[in-house]
Amino acid sequence: MVTRLQAPPYTALAPHLPQFGRFGGADPETVASVRAILDDVRARGDAGVRDQTRRLDDIDLAPREWEVPVAGCQEALERLPSPLVAALEIAAARVRDYHARQVERGFSTRDADGTEIGMQVVPLERVGVYVPGGKAAYPSTVLMTALPARVAGVGEIVMVTPPGGTPDVVLAAARLAGVDRVFRVGGAQAIAALAYGTPTIPRVDKIVGPGNRFVTEAKRQVAGDVGIDMLAGPTEVLVLADDTADVRAVAADLIAQAEHDEDACAWCVTTSTLLADGLSGELARQMERSPRRAIVERALAARGVVVVVPDLDAAVEVANRRAPEHLELLVRDPWAVARRIRHAGAIFVGDSTPEPVGDYLAGPSHVLPTGGAARYVSPLGVYDFVKRMSVICYSRERLERDAAHIVALAEAEGLYGHAEAVRVRTSDIRRQTSDVTRHTSESGTKSDV
Q1: Which of 64, 69, 174, 237 could cysteine-pair with 179, CB 3.0–4.6 Å?
Q2: Is residue 57 within 8 Å of residue 187, measured between CB atoms?
Q3: Does residue 139 have a cis peptide bond before it, meaning omega lies within 30 degrees of 0?
């Protein structure tokens, strides 16, 4: 059911660690297919989007039918049962409050001579949010992507989602999150429309949100024409457990992640041989009750791993090498372990913090790096929806004082126009040729002989 390993040696992990082309990397066929879709939409606009949607989703909607009016989102919210509305409202409030703490105000420092150096933070004008459909409805993804953008002050939020029946709960979440426009278009053609713009769907400055391998590859290919958040692959969890962990909780948490799809990755790293021995049987018992049993079985068979380690030092080493999207700490002193984690998308501390609390209600965005990208990528946040601009204002006194240094560096790089732009503004430099210039000229003459 799951692969069992012993570590150290850590080389045993190698076949199971993320590698380019396995977790998030696209195969040549997908790359070519997506390129054709992007080129079609870029060339033909709405007609390309419509034809690709007809071909891939077997749904034919005219461009005028793509957009869901704001009133439609409000009506969807009113149709939901009150307990579900309450849950969405609580989740929205917590996501909003958490991300409000991420807001950057910029800074400015002013010297006595009047020189001012600073950083100005401005929100993006328009962003696109991709919300997956198909196997499940994802109102949580709406909240976790759109609300940080709204908190950041983004001018317009455009949401796209596959057209195969947009659930009321997704439209309601869009309403609560402050999404400005919703379009029933999905797949690589939706990414193309957001990146290049069509007569119906406006071009955006940045695209965020998870999707299948075609959506991910489309984001990869449009990056540079438009900003993207990250290249998200299949979802992952690593449960780090010692002898205090309940095998039932560990099994439940692995299944919770594996039920997403067949490519999901679920690891348990444990210091307890007893827990490792009992895990397969517990997984089998719990899977019998899972409505998504077939998906869970395939995911665990392909990417389910149990690593038995001698101590917590080794467990932490394995976790950092894996750099998982979600890391649960079911150990005696979880905070002590949490402080030693260098690479993870989100850390879930203690037995009372299963990963689903982060998916829905805790507050931080659940859009997280996968495939080992937690080594260098952060969770989606307000900082993804702003630009930082340097602001520099030199006083005349500072320019006079720094001019010789600037000229020396510019001429050392051979950029004499840079030096002249300073020289013409400063009285002491304007009247003389820099020593650096003379030295460089003399050195060049000698070397030519």
Answers
A1: 174
A2: yes
A3: no
Of 74, 53, 71, the residue nearest 62 (C-alpha): 53
Q: What is the pLDDT of residues 220-275, one digit of tens each?
A: 999 999 999 999 889 999 999 999 999 999 999 999 999 998 999 999 999 999 99
Q: Which helix (H) or strand (E) holds 338?
A: helix 334-338
Q: What is the number of alpha carbons within 13 Å of residue 74 lying toward its C-beta?
A: 4
- Asked whether 134 and 261 are in contact (CB, 8 A), the reply is no
Q: Which residues are identified as catalytic?
A: 325-326
Please give the structure tokens belonging to residue 276: 């490792």
Let me know: does 102 contact 384? Beta carbons within 8 Å.
Answer: no
User: In the CATH scheme, what is the code of domain 28-232+383-388?
Assistant: 3.40.50.1980
The 3-state secondary structure of 93-146 reads HHHHHHHHCCCCCCEEEECCCCCEEEEEEEECCEEEEECCCCCCCCHHHHHHHH
Give 23-83 as a DSSP string. Answer: SSPPPHHHHHHHHHHHHHHHHHTHHHHHHHHHHHHS----GGGTEEPHHHHHHHHHHS-HH
Distance CA 385, CA 207 (A): 10
Domains 3-24+233-362 and 28-232+383-388 share a fold: yes
pLDDT digits (tens, 9 = 90+) for 386-402: 999 999 999 999 999 99
The answer to whether residues 409 and 434 touch, using CB atoms and an 8 Å cutoff, is no
Query: Domain-by-domain residue ranges, the chain?
Result: 3-24+233-362, 28-232+383-388, 396-448
Q: Output the six-digit token pair for 205.
A: 């400055």
The model's pLDDT over 90-149, given as tens digits with 9 standing for 90+, comes to 999 999 999 999 999 999 999 999 999 999 999 999 999 999 986 668 999 999 999 999
